[in-house]
Amino acid sequence: MKIGFVPIDNRPVCYTLPEQIVKIDRDIEFFIPNRNMLGDLTKYADIEGIFSWLEELPKVDAIVIALDTVAYGGLISSRRCPETFEQIKARILRLKSILEKKNAKVYAFSSIMRISNNNINEEEKEYWNRWGKKIFDYSYQTHKLGCESCITNVIPSEILDDYLNTRKRNFEINKIYLELQKEGLFDTLVFSKDDCAEYGFNVQEAQFLEKLGGFVKTGADEIPLTLLARAIQGEMKVLPIFTEPDCKTLISNYEDVSIEKSVLGQLELAGCTISDHSDVSLIVNNFINAQGEIVMKRFTEPFKGEFVHPDGNYMVADVRFANGADNAFMEKVLISGFSDNKFYGYSAWNTSANTLGSLICGAKVKFLAKNYDELAFKKLQAVRLLDDWAYQANVRQQLKSTDVQEVTCLMKPFEKRVSAFLGININAKYSFPWNRLFEVEVELI
Q1: For the chain, how far is it from start to end, CA to CA, in angstroms?
Q2: DSSP letters spanning 172-194
Q3: Which residues contact 243 (CB under 8 A, 6 or more apart)?
Q4: What mean pLDDT do residues 399-421 have?
Q5: How many Cα atoms are found within 13 Å in the side-chain-facing hemisphere of 25?
């Protein structure tokens, strides 16, 4: 199978993770733009370069595309870029012309602009460092009350106008995508809700798009991977098994649906069938009272049971904590040992949706692989264990800066354990591509 793939940006989970996943099947030919074409925390994507790449793309069976990349220059750029509606619309119509000539199934997603409940402008416009929480409150209360909140009197009019105009522009662009889907351009089109609350302009927009026939999904970074799984032709039957079955109706951090609905939604979008007679069991290490988050000092009750291998194939979604593994659970997993034939993957990065989407994608590629590469699968698992467990749940808490030498030293004991668990020699190189502790890049050399 031949697949073209346009990521959201150049982060490891957006760029190198899909590459690592498709290597599990040597028969998949994977085409992706050069990494330096893509956006990052401060840089817009090379949109002209990506258009040229798409035009030169050889005949493929499927194209998975993050529409924010070609419209705005990336996910973060979608909240910042100054271009007008007409300028962005012209790009979308150019994209339409290119895709129509490709005669491939197109799996696309576009974000519904998020509203962060903080005064951190790292991924937002400059004024967010002072007015972010007020804008969030204004959005939340206006939606909840059904009329404009009095908070509008607090926010400077030029800032509020700029914010609302940016939202309106992006919303109108999403409506264009919906029309293009009705014309048959997209095989699948997803609108993503990122960092959701119960109320807000983003929730209103999602509801409006659904009324127009759009498909809305909670999540963001993992959706290209879930769509990649959907593009892989073939059936995989999955049975979700929750470590805390009485708590599966609880809602994860940064999401607006229960962990059970998040699981079922990811499986459905990935093109999997939910069945008691499964090909692969999905073990979900879910939380009891509320999802924890180690780096944010949000604690929750860790796993206290025993990890028991199912009789058949299984994959493991560790979502008891956001942004990293549950150490107590991981100890039980590592002690239980690695089963080459039955183990289909582990994941615990960022939000529950992020974890689930990437995990399911890797499992589906492995299950349906026509030319399976066992070493590639083990390397994928090594990266996830070193990132999600070793770094996010442990080493990150000890770091004060992006000192590569320090993180390399602190990761050594974990490398030995992961190496013993997977039965491969690990020599890893670490870097911080966005010069922040939030994401580390693990490169096996």
Answers
A1: 27
A2: HHHHHHHHHHHTT--SEEEEEE-
A3: 283, 284, 285, 286, 303, 305, 329
A4: 97
A5: 22
What are the residues whose beta carbons fall under 8 Å from the beta carbon of 45, sequence distance 6 or more?
9, 37, 38, 39, 69, 70, 73, 74, 77
- How do residues 179-229 score in pLDDT, each as one tens digit? 999 999 999 999 998 766 788 999 999 999 999 999 999 889 999 999 999
Which H or E element spans position 327?
helix 327-336
**Structure-block tokens of residue 239:** 């049975």
For the full predicted model, state whether its pTM sits above 0.90: yes
pLDDT > 70: what percent of the chain?
Answer: 100
For residue 128, give Cα distances in angstroms to 35, 49, 253, 255, 277: 29, 30, 21, 21, 50
291 phi, psi to nearest 5 deg? -65, 135
Residues contacting 98, CB < 8 A, separation 6+: 51, 54, 55
Q: What is the rounded average pLDDT for all residues in the chain?
A: 95
Report how far residue 148's alpha carbon sits from residue 146's, in angstroms, rounded to the nearest whole number. Answer: 7
Closest CA to 352 of 245, 196, 132: 196
What is the strand order of the sheet 105-112 is part of?
29-31, 2-6, 62-66, 105-112, 188-193, 216-218
Domain borders along the chain are 2-227, 235-444
**Residue 24: how many CB atoms within 10 A of its CB?**
27
Q: State pLDDT tens for residues 271-310.
A: 999 999 999 999 999 999 999 999 999 999 999 999 988 8
> Would you state the structure tokens that stand for residue 70, as one six-digit string?
């070609």
Find where tokens 């499986």 sit: 267
